[in-house]
Each structure stands twice: as C-alpha cells, then as structure tokens.
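Raw record, unedited: DUF1015 domain-containing protein
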Amino acid sequence: MALIKPFKITHYDVSLNGVLDKLITPPYDVISKEEQEIFYKSHPLNIIRLVLGKQYPADSESDNKYTRAAQTLHEWLQRGVLVREQEPGFAVYQVSFELPEGGAQTIDGIVALVKVDDYGQGKVLPHEKTYKGPKEDQLKLLRACRSHFTPIHGLFDDGSDVIRDAYASLLRQPPLQETKDAQGSVHRVWVVHDDRIVARIRDFMKDKSIFIADGHHRYETARAYKEEIERSQKPPADDSHEYVMMYLTSMNHPGLTILPAHRMITGVDNFDLSQVLERLSPVFEIENLCYWNGNRGESVRLMLERLKAAATVGGQFGFVVRGDECLRLLRLKDFSIIDDLMDQEIPKSLRTLDVTILGELILNRAFGIDKGSGEGQVEYTPRAHEALKKVFDGEVQASFILNPTRVDQMRTAAELGHKLPHKSTYFYPKLSSGLVLNVFGE
C-alpha cells in the first residue's frame, strides 16, 4: 500500500533553539494578513519568508514572493541557518496542547516521505474537496524552492500501537528541538537514524493506507508537480518529485482531536433573512433565542450548550445573522427526508453528516452557495466565539455553528472515495512550519 522512506531532514541549526518560538509559524493557510506581518517582524530568520512571503506592486516574473523564497532558502542553507542531516532518518514530532474546552493532551507521530500516488490507487485517501487558487499558489512555490516546509498530516490504522512502540524509548530522551507556539502548544522533535527502528516502521506501513487529515491542497500540489516533472523532456536528477513530506499518526491515538469548522457567510447577493427562513422552515425546526439591548450572553450560552448536547444526534446548527437580535437553533425535522432532498451521488452513509446537511440543505438550498464550497463566500474558524463575534461586529453576513466531524465519519468518506465539503474537519493542533523541512536533492 503506502510507500514511505526516510530522508535527510533539514531543520534550523541548534544554535537557534533558544529563539525557535520566533522562527516558526502555523501552516500557510491559517495565517492572516495581520499574522503574516507579525511573523515578519518577530525575527529576520522567521520561516514566514519561505512559506508565505509578501507580495509587492513591483513584483515581476523574475522577482516575486516565490523567487525571493527560493533565494532566501539558498542563503539560509549556505549560511548554516538551516542544516541538513547527513544521514536519512525519520523525525518523531510530538505536540502537547490544551483543548479549547480545557484539559491537557499530547499527540505524536513520525515525519517521513510518502510516495505520491493518484487517489484512486487506494494508498493515500482524501476526504475533502479543495480550491483551485491555493493549489496554484503552492505549485509556484514548490517549483521555485523544490522543498516541503510543512508536513501534511496523515492518519493510518494502528490499533496495536506498533509504530508508537517503535519510537517510544526516544521520547524519554532530550529532543533535538523544543519550542512553544503562539497558542501555547509545545512542539518537540527527535530524529531517528536507528536502522532497526526505520526498518520496522517502513515494514509496518507498507500494508497501510494513509488518510489525509490536513493538507489536501499540499498533497494535490505535490501530485501536480510530480506529473509536471514526468511530462517534461528533461530527466529529473533524482526521485525527490515522487515523494511528499507527511506527519503520520495513528487514528487510534488518544490525543487525536478534531474541532468543528464553523462557517461564516459573506458576499451573498440580495441576502434576505425572511426568505432564508422561509426556505429552511419546511426542513428544519427553527428555535429563536432572542435578546434585547445587546444582552446576548445568555442566548449564546444556551445555543452552544444545546448544540453540544445534540452532538450524538446530529442535524442541528446554530444560526446567527448580522443585525438581528435573535440567535437560532436549526433542527432537522426528519432524517428520513434526506434521501429525497440530497444529491443522489452522495453515499447514503454520508448524507446524515452535519457538514453534508449544512452544505446541501442550508448553504446550497437556502443561500444558493454551490454544494457548500463557496470560494470567496464562506470563511472558516474552529472557534465558535470568533464566528459569533464577526457577525456581531458586522464583518460577515451570518455564521453557522456546528459540531465536529468524527474520525470514523472522515474515514468512511475516504474509503468510499467521496469528498466531503471544504473544511469538513479541523484537526487540532496544527503542526508548525519550520521545525522539519524536506529540501530536495541527494
């Protein structure tokens, strides 16, 4: 099944370990413009200059954020800012974090190179749709830098903890790197060169499928780059283009956490609340949680409390509209009507998922947003209070609060070959860019 291999890991020189917190960033796709500026100012060696460089009005084909990233990467390698391990190995990556609702948790896994294959071969399985724009951007960066700066998060089935047992002793040793991110999560990295451990991991993984948890855009970018190289008449110098860097964790890991990706609606023409409610009412019970004089705290508490209590039932959503003094709970009246209302191409076992119901029966039918994709019309956040605040502050037209998709639901979608709506899952915490890099070349 999945083919993985060790690689010559690139990382910041250990002399910079004391300032690692000023050098790392989250993945590019969760960095806002404001955060980009903060990372630029935090340190002249911050990885933001590689993963999400600034654009300028004078940019050209020969001087742009992609060429500048490539030049910066070359300079940092030459100066020893970034160093490459002499021997191939795997990295063990561990994150200790606080859950949003409270409580400490830890997750760990290995960072390896995974052979890039077409989805249909069953070796690497997706579960989400992607947008065209981010893939075009990432492909330009990959062409220029020939490097991976952030591991894609992949899951595999390991009920017996074979992989974790293989590297367990390493976790008792001091890590190569340890730092804290902006959210307070502690990231630790060890490098594994032991041939026995490497062989044990490779042998176990050869019979496993890998489910993409986070990084669908980056995986599809790697696949596009591989196909591009194979089409070119110039023979590649090595097989670097055939692999992508992935962080592999067991889907049975107790620390595996999925947060909901709440939807924020913006840019819908002729938005009319009364019309939206009229379209929703045949399918959903609508409970109004109204407040007056801006005293909305109790309504928010009730909505979130009732929504959480309905997590195992499904089909329930919080609905908040800009300028309205009522929060609303939407409850699907009858699950039996779903089959008649949904696209018949959606497998029956996935029609009852909250993200499917929201995309098909609410965003599509009531708002006219195509299949819940809505590039430019739908924004996402794992924090309910952020989604609510943006409505209350008038920054978005409406927000939908929902419960998280479960790992077993994600796996079912992947195994059926069906892609769920964009951002159906939000795996937490996010890996940091800059701790483990894969720079192409022998």
